[in-house]
């Protein structure tokens, strides 16, 4: 029988927490197996529980929504600045949308849409021949190079092509 002072584990199993793992293991015929590791909730479950506790308080709900909005905006803004550069610009933007998806349903729908079409694109490309994939990769590299050249030229008035040819 549990009293009001007993602590219940986060898995919601209703069992009081304590050091009764060897007792449970022996009762189950698994002597030497630590079942507390098996019953430990995953990080997603812990995060979900934490968010539910925060959302249960009206002030916590507003603060959480504002914090998620600002964090997502910061990550999306950094990703948007990185898009013209070679690197993970779009991946950072998607990470920011993923942060927004914690609290905003429109961001969850946008993320699901993006995942669905990215998966379709990946499957379509993987069904093509190696020569097509190589040509697609080269076309992507040419496009990124053109974007980098344009960005550097318009931002710093430096023509990278003439600079590289002058140094050769």
From TrEMBL:
<dbReference type="InterPro" id="IPR013434">
    <property type="entry name" value="CHP02611"/>
</dbReference>
<feature type="region of interest" description="Disordered">
    <location>
        <begin position="1"/>
        <end position="35"/>
    </location>
</feature>
<keyword id="KW-0812">Transmembrane</keyword>
<feature type="transmembrane region" description="Helical">
    <location>
        <begin position="132"/>
        <end position="156"/>
    </location>
</feature>
<protein>
    <recommendedName>
        <fullName>TIGR02611 family protein</fullName>
    </recommendedName>
</protein>
<feature type="transmembrane region" description="Helical">
    <location>
        <begin position="62"/>
        <end position="83"/>
    </location>
</feature>
<dbReference type="Pfam" id="PF09656">
    <property type="entry name" value="PGPGW"/>
</dbReference>
<keyword id="KW-1133">Transmembrane helix</keyword>
<keyword id="KW-0472">Membrane</keyword>
<dbReference type="InterPro" id="IPR019099">
    <property type="entry name" value="Uncharacterised_PGPGW_TM"/>
</dbReference>
<feature type="transmembrane region" description="Helical">
    <location>
        <begin position="89"/>
        <end position="111"/>
    </location>
</feature>
